[in-house]
Design goal:
Elements lengths: L10 H11 L11 H9 L4 E4 L6 H9 L5 E5 L3 H9 L3 H7 L6 E5 L7 H10 L4 E6 L2 H6 L10 E4 L5 H4 L23 H7 L3 H4 L4 H22 L6 H13 L7 H8 L3 H13 L3 E6 L4 H6 L3 E4 L2 H8 L7 H24 L5 E6 L5 E7 L4 E6 L11 H9 L6 E5 L5 E2 L4 E5 L4
Helix pairs in contact: 1-11, 2-3, 9-16, 9-17, 11-16, 12-13, 12-16, 13-14
Length: 429
């Protein structure tokens, strides 16, 4: 089991991690670039949420570069954070002393959630525009922060998507389609299944450094994020849970089994999963059921937000040999995450579910567009046998809104398997 000592890492690795993951790495175009620049041009305010180290700070600094009328509040800086904690109204005083109506960049706002009252006042009085980032909705909610509804536009920045690498060959199905915006050399889809797609990891020169940085990420996450969530006294138990939860990523976890293996109660396990949700570390996927009330009582699946972070937390050796054992699971994980990220970055109100019957029929992913249900099965092989389509056929027979289904594969070109099912290589998604 992973006790606290197992998370101790050489200080030099942490120092290298800090340099590489907080700005000294390659800057890539992101899908959110255009939206944020357009928002700035219109003099509107935004809240950008996302897990740690997805590139929020880099994105905003790039979008604000060249502008003169900027006020910057990096709350990672202890001196600035302490100043704001001591008197949150000082933000109002400082902006009132500013000659023009500034753009105010508040980075890691969850560190001083009391600032949101001042932000709301300043927006209402049209004294400033704000770009705010945060990595934990939990702390903001706990402090009663209303996340400024109607005053700011809210966005989510995830790890890098396939079109941000330049991997998309064509869009054979609109889930929705994307066009490439970068052409990144030296980092493959197979590597992304092992090391994930955090920008600071992708930009490193070799896989050994990526492995070290991911180990450091897990350490930083435990030591900083979890302590900030007031779980310091439970950090040993949480560390054991985190390893087990990462190993169970992509499944409906057996809470009783996790409780026995981690040594904490089932209610505590539920609390820990809640922490992972609110710190944006897991994606929660509910089962698709006709009866919405039954859905609430059914078991969800949890997918860690990044395959590399999931692998590091699972204590799986980070090398290409792991794909021999884990490829099917990691391929499914990568495709599910891409679908979720793509829907979110496109601003669509689609819902993602999974489907499983008591008789064992199963579909990995159900996309509910509101007018249509799109069943998606995920297979890591290059070819799909018709005998493997039992689940997707069963779903379409059960739901009239499901007109056509897809199987995402590792194949070369799309292939029509039946009149209602098409195999799509991941590059064509």
């Amino acid at each position: 089991m992973a006790g606290k000592k197992e998370f101790d890492i050489d200080l030099s690795i942490i120092q290298i991690y800090t340099l590489n993951m907080q700005g000294n790495f390659k800057v890539y175009l992101r899908n959110l670039d255009v939206q944020i620049k357009r928002l700035i041009a219109k003099r509107q305010s935004a809240l950008i949420l996302g897990p740690r180290q997805t590139g929020k700070t880099t994105l905003i600094k790039k979008c604000l570069s060249g502008m003169k009328n900027i006020m910057d509040y990096p709350l990672q800086n202890p001196a600035i954070r302490q100043e704001m904690e001591t008197d949150p109204s000082i933000l109002i005083k400082q902006i009132k002393a500013h000659k023009n109506t500034p753009f105010v960049f508040i980075d890691e706002a969850q560190k001083v959630p009391e600032l949101f009252d001042s932000v709301q006042y300043l927006i209402d009085e049209k004294m400033a525009y704000f770009i705010i980032t945060g990595s934990s909705a939990r702390k903001l909610k706990r402090k009663g922060v209303n996340l400024l509804p109607g005053r700011v536009k809210t966005y989510r920045l995830d790890p890098m998507q396939w079109n941000e690498f330049g991997w998309i060959k064509d869009n054979a199905v609109e889930i929705p389609g994307m066009r490439n915006i970068n052409r990144i050399e030296g980092f493959t889809f197979e590597q992304s299944m092992i090391y994930g797609s955090l920008p600071g990891i992708v930009g490193l020169p070799d896989d050994s450094e990526r492995s070290e940085m991911l180990r450091a990420y897990t350490h930083i996450y435990l030591e900083e994020e979890i302590r900030a969530e007031a779980l310091s006294r439970k950090i040993g138990a949480f560390g054991r849970f985190l390893e087990l939860a990462a190993q169970e990523s992509g499944t409906s976890p057996n809470l009783t089994k996790l409780s026995l293996e981690s040594g904490v109660s089932v209610p505590t396990i539920k609390e820990f999963y809640s922490v992972l949700e609110d710190t944006l570390v897991v994606e929660k996927i509910e089962p698709y059921l006709k009866n919405a009330r039954k859905r609430i009582l059914a078991s969800p699946r949890y997918y860690f937000f990044d395959t590399g972070v999931r692998n590091a937390l699972s204590r799986i050796p980070l090398n290409t040999a792991m794909l021999n054992v884990e490829k099917g699971r990691l391929f499914e994980h990568a495709v599910i995450l891409e679908i979720i990220r793509r829907i979110r970055s496109s601003g669509l109100d689609y819902k993602v579910y999974y489907w499983r019957t008591g008789g064992g029929a199963e579909v990995d992913c159900i996309i509910d567009t509101g007018t249509e249900l799109i069943p998606v099965e995920i297979k890591a092989g290059e070819r799909v046998m018709t005998s493997e389509l039992r689940g997707i056929k069963s779903f379409m027979d059960s739901y009239k809104k499901a007109v056509h289904g897809f199987v995402i594969t590792n194949g070369r070109i799309p292939e029509r398997l039946t009149d209602r099912v098409t195999a799509i290589p991941w590059r064509f998604l």
